[in-house]
Design a protein that fits this description.
single chain; 218 residues; 2 strands
């Protein structure tokens, strides 16, 4: 309580930056969580735009599509936790990231009069599976951010993660608006947005492999 408030405490304290600079795994986990929230902002808005504009759904049925992500995410979190079994498991992360890319590409498939192969009914199970993949992917990554820092820096590291996440959300909103403008000018269907999201997620699915370790060792 008696510690002075320094100017940089309102941004990112240098002590926290030093911790991140020394630990590549921690740095990557922070970047990936930020990218995840960037992607989340794009996907959520894309589902709404796709449902209302491309499929011509009313608010109620568009909300059903959005809710399917929420149905799948807690299931994926439970599955990810069970498969991890008290450790940071890179295979769970890869499976979740790969599932996300696969589902995004399915949502981008064209066909039929509305230029969407799956339609309303077909999109429901794909969005649930996307939510499951999301939960599986993000749980081990967030655990990494919580357990990798030294004990006296854990609280500030979670605060830094929240800062990075908000940066990702803001950038994601900008990407969505820019992509939407391009789609309008080129007369492309809204589900093209899912291709953009898949391309953002693809490098993570291909290259991000957190170091496997038991939580008791951290």
């Amino acid at each position: 309580p008696g510690m002075p408030l320094r100017g940089w405490d309102l941004l990112i304290p240098p002590e926290v930056l030093k911790v991140v600079a020394r630990d590549t795994q921690l740095l990557l986990a922070l970047l990936v969580t930020s990218m995840f929230w960037l992607l989340g902002g794009i996907v959520q808005q894309s589902v709404n735009a796709f449902g209302k504009t491309q499929l011509g759904l009313d608010d109620a049925r568009t909300s059903v599509l959005s809710a399917m992500l929420g149905v799948g995410i807690p299931i994926g979190c439970v599955i990810g936790g069970l498969l991890s079994k008290g450790r940071i498991n890179p295979r769970v992360v890869t499976a979740g990231a790969s599932g996300l890319v696969f589902c995004l590409l399915l949502m981008a498939l064209r066909g039929g009069p509305q230029q969407h192969l799956l339609g309303f009914i077909g999109s429901i199970p794909v969005l649930v599976l996307m939510g499951v993949s999301t939960g599986m992917f993000i749980v081990p990554v967030q655990v990494s951010v919580q357990v990798l820092p030294p004990p006296d820096e854990k609280g500030r590291m979670i605060a830094l993660m929240n800062q990075c996440n908000w940066i990702g959300i803001v950038i994601g909103a900008g990407i969505f608006k820019l992509t939407l403008l391009i789609l309008n000018n080129t007369n492309q269907p809204r589900n093209t947005m899912f291709i953009v999201a898949a391309l953002i997620m693809l490098p993570i699915a291909l290259f991000y492999r957190p170091e496997e370790r038991r939580l008791s060792d951290t």
